[in-house]
Design goal:
The structure holds two protein chains of two kinds. By secondary structure, chain A is an alpha/beta fold. Helix content of chain A is 39%, strand content 13%. Chain A contains 15 helices and eleven strands. Chain A has an eleven-stranded mixed beta sheet with strand order 1-3-2-4-6-5-10-11-9-7-8. Chain B has a domain of 43 residues. The radius of gyration of chain B is 23 Å and the shape is flat. Chain B starts with a helix and ends in a 17-residue tail after the last helix. Chains A and B meet through α9, α10, α11, α12 and α13 of A and α1 and α2 of B.
Chain lengths: 483, 92
C-alpha cells in the first residue's frame, strides 16, 4: 500500500476493509524509517520489535470488530513523553539512559486504542528551542531541504509526519513547539486549550504553559487523535473536568458568518513578506467562503516574547532543580561531597541553552529583580489574556502567521539566543493565554518551503478552529517533500 | 551582566562554569536581559485576585488508598543504589 501522504481516515478504511494488515503497514513505515532516517535524524529510538507486537495485537482487535479510530495507526512520540520501559531522553545527556517506570496518561490512552508506536522522536533539549538543533542526540533536518531546520521543539515529530516516517505524532507545545515545526515541515499541528490534555508523564518544562497535542497530515486527523487523548486525569492537578466533545463534529459545516480577527501587529515589520502575503491570501479565501474578516489590534504583542521567556524560564529553573544525579538522570563520577556531586552532574548533563534558561529563570525570580521581571511578566500575562478576551467578545477566531519566516538554515540562528527567542513572537501569546490553536500549511515560498498559518480559538473551542482549518485545507493543494 | 552576577545565578541553579564558559554566559545573558528589559517599558501591575478567583481550594481528591509504584521500579534509574538512593557522606 502506498503510504506517501496517507491519512488516518484512509488507513482506517483500508485496515477495516482488510485491504492491508496492521503488520504490513507497520513494516512499510519501518522500512521507510530505515531508508530515510539516517539523513533526517527524526528518531532517537525506533521500537521495532514492540511495534510489530502492537501491530499483531491491533490486528486481533480489528478482527474482533473492536477497532476504534486509532487502532493500528503507526505513530511517533516526542521523546519528552514518558513511555514505560522505553528510553525517554528529552534529547538531553541528563536523561540519556532514563527508562520511565510508568506511562504518561496520553500513552495509557493511546495504548488502550491500540496504536502502534514506531518510536521516540527528537526535540530541542528539554523542549527548549525552536530548531531541534539543541538536541544532544539527533539534530533533525527538514524534509523539504535537509540543510534547513525542521523547527522545534517538536521537530522530530513534524519532520517524521512530513516525510511519512510515521502516520501521525504527538508533540508538546510550551511556546509554539507543536505549531512552528508543523509550519516549517508543511504539516498540521494542534495545541489544545491548557488543561484539556493531561500533562502527567510529560517531562516538565514550564508547567503553566506546557500542553501535549497532535501533529498529523491535516486538521481532521488531528481532531481524531485529540478525541482520544483529552479528558480529566486525577494525576494532573490542572486537568480540566469539562466534558470532551467530538472534535470532528463541526468539520464540513459552512463557515459563512464566522468572524475571523486579524490583529495588525501579527502582520507588521519583522514578518517575512512572502509569509504575510500567503496568510493574507488565506484570509481572502475565507472571505470568499462567507467568513467576515475583522481588523483589530493586540498592543501587548510587543512585550509578549519577553514575558514568555521570563515566565517559562522561571518555571523551568524550578522544574529542572529535580535533576540532582541521585534518583535518576546523569550522575557525575566526580565529586566527593553532596554539593559537588549535584553541581558536576548538572554541569555535565545539561546543554548550553538549558543552562541559559536556568540562569534567566533564577535572575527573574531573585531578590531585587522579582518585581521588575517576573512580576511584570505576570502582569503582562493578564493583559494579553484581557486583549484576547476583548477580541473574542466580537470574533470567533484569530488568524496569524505561525512563524515570521519559513525554515532557516541549520546553523543560521544557533549562536544567537536573542534572535532565536524573537522568532517565537507569533506563537507565545497562545500559551500565555492558555488558548487552543492549530497551524496548517497555507502556501510555499519562492524556495518551495512551506508557510503555515495559525488559527487561534476561544478557550475549549477546538471544534471551531478545526472547522476553519479544515475548510481551507479542502481547497488547498499540498506539495509533498521529494524525499 | 557581570561575572559576579553570573556566578551568583549559577550558584542558585547549582551549575558550574569554567572561566571561559562564564565569559560566554555573561555575554549571552547581557543580550538576553536587554530583550527582557522591554517589559519595563509598559506600566502594568499584576492583580493576584484576578488570577486566583477561579481556584477552588477545597477541590481535593478523595482521601483513599491507591497503588504506588514498586520500590524496585522507583530505584531502577538510580545509578548508585543499595535498595535505597545512595548519596555521598553528608555527616562527618
Amino acid at each position: 500500500m502506498e503510504i506517501r501522504g496517507l491519512k488516518i481516515r484512509e488507513l482506517r478504511k483500508a485496515l477495516d476493509e482488510k485491504q492491508v494488515s496492521v503488520r504490513e503497514i507497520t513494516e512499510e513505515y519501518l522500512k521507510r524509517i530505515k531508508a530515510y532516517d539516517d539523513e533526517l535524524e527524526c528518531y532517537i529510538t525506533v521500537t521495532e520489535d514492540n511495534a510489530l507486537k502492537q501491530a499483531d495485537e491491533a490486528q486481533k482487535k480489528i478482527d474482533r470488530g473492536e477497532a476504534t479510530d486509532l487502532t493500528g495507526i503507526p505513530m511517533a512520540i516526542k521523546d519528552n513523553i514518558c513511555t514505560e520501559g522505553v528510553l525517554t531522553t528529552c534529547s538531553s545527556k541528563m536523561l540519556e539512559d532514563f527508562i520511565p517506570p510508568y506511562n504518561a496518561t496520553v500513552m495509557e490512552r493511546l495504548d488502550k486504542e491500540g496504536i502502534v508506536m514506531l518510536g521516540k522522536v527528537s526535540l530541542d533539549e528539554f523542549a527548549m528551542g525552536g530548531s531541534t538543533q539543541t538536541s544532544a542526540f539527533k539534530k533533525t533536518k527538514n524534509p523539504y531541504d535537509k540543510n534547513r531546520v525542521p523547527g522545534g521543539s517538536s521537530g522530530g515529530s513534524a519532520s517524521a509526519v512530513s516525510a511519512d516516517l510515521c502516520l501521525a505524532a504527538l508533540g508538546s507545545d510550551t511556546g509554539g513547539s507543536i505549531r512552528q515545526p508543523s509550519s516549517f515541515c508543511g504539516v498540521t499541528g494542534l495545541k489544545p486549550t491548557y488543561s484539556r490534555v493531561s500533562r502527567y508523564g510529560l517531562v516538565a518544562f514550564a508547567s503553566s504553559l506546557d500542553q501535549i497535542g497532535p501533529i498529523a497530515r491535516d486538521s481532521h486527523d488531528c481532531a481524531l487523535i485529540l478525541n482520544h487523548i483529552c479528558g480529566f486525569d486525577p494525576h494532573d492537578g490542572t486537568s480540566s473536568k469539562r466534558d470532551v466533545p467530538d472534535f470532528t463534529a463541526k468539520i464540513g459545516k459552512d463557515i459563512k458568518g464566522i468572524k475571523i480577527a486579524l490583529p495588525k501587529e501579527f502582520y507588521a515589520e519583522g514578518i517575512d513578506e512572502e509569509v504575510r502575503d500567503s496568510v493574507l491570501k488565506a484570509a481572502d479565501m475565507y472571505k470568499s467562503m462567507g467568513a467576515e474578516l475583522v481588523e483589530c489590534s493586540m498592543p501587548s504583542l510587543k512585550y509578549a516574547t519577553a514575558a514568555y521567556y521570563l515566565i517559562s524560564s522561571a518555571e523551568a529553573c524550578s522544574n529542572l532543580s529535580r535533576y540532582d544525579g541521585i534518583k535518576y538522570g546523569h550522575r557525575s563520577e566526580i565529586g566527593s561531597s553532596y554539593e559537588e556531586l549535584i553541581k558536576n552532574s548538572r554541569r555535565e548533563g545539561f546543554g548550553d541553552e538549558v543552562k541559559r534558561r536556568i540562569l534567566l529563570g533564577n535572575y527573574a525570580l531573585s531578590s531585587g529583580y522579582y518585581d521588575a521581571y517576573y512580576g511584570k511578566a505576570m502582569a503582562l500575562k493578564q493583559l494579553i489574556r484581557k486583549e484576547y478576551n476583548d477580541i473574542f467578545a466580537k470574533c470567533d477566531a484569530v488568524l496569524t502567521p505561525t512563524a515570521p519566516t519559513t525554515a532557516y538554515r541549520c546553523n543560521e540562528n544557533i549562536s544567537d539566543p536573542v534572535k532565536m527567542y524573537q522568532a517565537d513572537i507569533c506563537t507565545v501569546t497562545v500559551n500565555i493565554a492558555g488558548l487552543p490553536a492549530i497551524s496548517t500549511p497555507c502556501g510555499y515560498d519562492g524556495k518551495g518551503l512551506p508557510i503555515g498559518m495559525s488559527i487561534i480559538g476561544k478557550q475549549f473551542d477546538e471544534q471551531t478552529i478545526i472547522q476553519i482549518a479544515d475548510s481551507f485545507e479542502q481547497g488547498f493543494e499540498r506539495i509533498m517533500p521529494t524525499i | 551582566m557581570d561575572l559576579d552576577m553570573i556566578k551568583y545565578l549559577a550558584e542558585l541553579g547549582k551549575l558550574e562554569f569554567t572561566d571561559e564558559e562564564l565569559k560566554k554566559a555573561s555575554e549571552d545573558m547581557t543580550s538576553i536581559i536587554k530583550l527582557m528589559d522591554t517589559v519595563k517599558e509598559i506600566d502594568v501591575t499584576y492583580d493576584p485576585v484576578l488570577d486566583n478567583k477561579n481556584i477552588y481550594l477545597n477541590d481535593l481528591r478523595i482521601d483513599e488508598k491507591s497503588q504506588s509504584l514498586e520500590t524496585s521500579k522507583l530505584l531502577q534509574n538510580a545509578k548508585n543504589q543499595r535498595n535505597c538512593f545512595v548519596v555521598p557522606k553528608v555527616v562527618e
